[in-house]
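cron nightly-structures :: item 1 of 1
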Amino acid sequence: MRSGPELVRASNEFAKEDRARTWRLLLVTLAAWFTAIAVASVAPLWAAIPATLLAGLLVVRVFIFYHDYLHTAVLVGSPVGGMIMRLFGYYLMAGPSVWRETHDYHHRHTAKMVGGSIGSYPVVTVGMWQGMTPSQRTGYKLIRHPLTMACGYFFMFVIGMCLSPFKRQPKQHLDGLIALVFHVSLVAGTWIFVGWQPAVLGFMAPAVIATAAGSYLFYAQHNFPGMQVKGRRDWEYSFAALHSSSMFDMGPVMHWFTGNIGYHHVHHLNHRIPFYRLPEAMAGMPELQNPHRTSWAVSDIRACLAGNVWSPKDGRMLTFAEADAHPPLTDDALAAK
């Protein structure tokens, strides 16, 4: 079985965009999204609310196009495609510079201790947990709390993708502020000049739904039973893709709405594979066919949320209760590798 750079090179066969297919899928998705927005904006509430939920799922799908565009997997060199993607990024408060900086780092350092928490949910070892102050522990718990994920619109995007990056590097991440102003202006302007229903049900609520779903998806893709964390000395890119990134099992409808992002181990092996070719890549490469799996099942969600502190000794994530009961130790040596 292939591994390391050889496995990555083998995946390049699938890292080729079909531009006509990209445009066809994008236009169909945009047409469905705009239709859902229109229904959510003018229909009676009994029809508008389901349309809002549908629009939220379609925002997730459009985001996958944006995500792949910034990975240079689709629409590279397309002025029209680039304009559409940038406008969408501003709508969802995910400016290009911020996303590239954090997400590209995440791909290069997934499940690496220390450094892997930039652009992803933080993970601490038992030794680090034992050395944290009560306030630091509370902050860590809050970041990984399901309610924080449910409020991803505010915590992950308003703060994490807009305000914090702009405050940290205002020149480099001016688009974080631009995205926030664009989003707020779109919602507020629509409310003032058109009405509350299109503002809330057409634009704001779908973004809230999409960011909540996306926040949990992103969590479960790298926090699941069986995941592995490595020190810097032992970390290897393809190993992290296959053992620190999950396969999120869904039905065909949800795979469509989520743009196949459930094939996350394949995506992490080669982020230039267009989302619509991820199933093809998995089927064509035996090394990708036995991934760690999770799903939308309540039992799987509970299992993903239960593991919160990495134990190098046990080679698994511990619950907070297990970490609190763990004998005193210092495993900071792992972080230094």
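cron nightly-structures :: done
Strands lie at 112-113, 124-125, 230-231, 247-249, 293-295, 309-311, 316-318.
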